[in-house]
Amino acid sequence: MGLYILKRLLLIIPTLFLILLINFVVIQLAPGGPVEQAIQQAESFQGVGAATGSGEIASASAQAGKYQGARGLSEEMVAKIEAQYGFDQPAHVRFWIMLKGYLSFDFGTSFFKDKPVTQLLWEKMPVTISLGLWSTLLIYWVSIPLGIKKAKQHGMFFDKSTSLLLAIGYAVPSFVFAILLIVFFAGGSYFQWFPLQGLFSENFASLNFVDKIKDYFWHMALPLLAIVLGGFASLTYLTKYSFMEEMNKQYVLAARAKGLSENRVLYGHVFRNAMLIVIAGLPEALVGIFFVGNLFIEIIFNLDGLGLLGFDAIQQRDYPVIFGTLFIFTLLGLVLRLISDVLYQIIDPRINFDARGAK
Fold first, then answer.
1. In 3D, which of 298, 284, 287, 310 has the Cα closest to residue 175?
2. Partner residues linked to 186 by β-bridges
3. CA–CA separation, 295 vs 289, rounded Å?
4. Model pTM?
């Protein structure tokens, strides 16, 4: 297992490099970068003369063909803007500088927020972690018992009646549930039982410890409920069919023939084998819940987390923030996949990745 872990850790390096390279090339080709946006802001700020600070309006310059909207700015002004965002260097030089910084987890400085990207990530991380951890715990707490019970009562009334609920949860995205919950329970049209947005109340600092906890979960109630409603169906189906497959195997029939109780058979023999496939899907579930499923939830409920940070960065073409969040997401995904493989062998020692060539 140690050799396998070492190989996987070494593979993380070229994987990160290729992902960053591909996204760097794609983003360089995309129109409307930070230089174009800065040029537009400069021209719209009290006219071109006030933006340049010289009062001179140059005619169509050579830079006009390179940047849309640069026609009213002097070449010197455009060159200053390029230098401000590092675009006075060739693309391969910028990419090399970025890679050298990433070796020390230095993601540069945001173009528009005037803060180091690492600082922005640390500031937004608590919100995303709060949503991700609580929603993951709730989804697994609901899905696994529900999936086991559906497997035990397959084809019976409980299984058929809950299938409609699962179909709705599977088909409707989390952000639709979020909108419905706001309409019904956050002052939209009916009740105002929960706050509309934010993670804390304005008087949070003055509350005592118990009231702070209540306030926190009061604000988290609707976002968490929206995520759970939109994310529990897949795991429930996975759990159900994993248990059904194991319950039809020969060792289960032999255990029942020995007179073992149904719970002893289910939780003493079936559970460990059936949960392997659920654990195998845990990394993807965590990445999806943390960084994909929470994006619209953070926007709708105005929760200032990593998803909202990345979304704003894409809109503004804030390249350091885009690549910083992409790097963190990718690294966490690769590490979680490795953790999943390690858990595989812990739960079932018969699995030996080293013996299989670590492929």
1. 298
2. 192
3. 9
4. 0.71
